Amino acid sequence: MPRYSIALASLRFLTILLAVLLAPAVQSSAPGKLGRSDAPQGLAGLPLDAQAVISASLGEDQPAYHARREGATLHLDNPAHGIKARFTAQGLALQSGGASLGLQMQGVGYGTYIQPLPAIEPQKQANPIEYRRGDLRDWNTNGPAGH
After folding, report:
1. Which residues on neighbouring strands pair with residue 70, listed in sequence order?
2. What is the rounded radius of gyration, in angstroms, for the C-alpha atoms of the chain?
3. Mind listing the pLDDT tens digit for each residue in 19-69?
4. pLDDT over 90 percentage in the chain
5. Domain locations in the chain?
6. Sign of CA dihedral 97, 98, 104, 108
7. End-to-end alpha-carbon separation of the chain, Å?
């Protein structure tokens, strides 16, 4: 496995983990509000890899999960989890309620051999958002399950 693939996989895992940790565990007894405990058990009962693929596919078809551009910044909202994401050439910023987190990919490699990466603008279709640096590609999808 190429070195940059390991670094990219680690970054993707960290991004997903932090997004899950930032997502508030919405519990509401108000009628008409869907809390996590009321989520459809069909999707939640599937393996995580399957959930990610299905969620990304649903997000691609539902405009509420599409990215929107404002200047050089791309915005994604995840209404099901209350997460807002902002993608710029400097990196990714996540916000949920009063909590926020920023991530920036500065280089790839291992040990003392880290190759710097240039700041680049994210690219989008409807969903996903991608950062492309030669052979290195980082993508982020959005959907009802938060993937």
Report:
1. 73
2. 16
3. 444 444 333 333 444 445 554 566 777 888 888 888 888 878 888 888 889
4. 24
5. 1-24+63-147
6. negative
7. 24
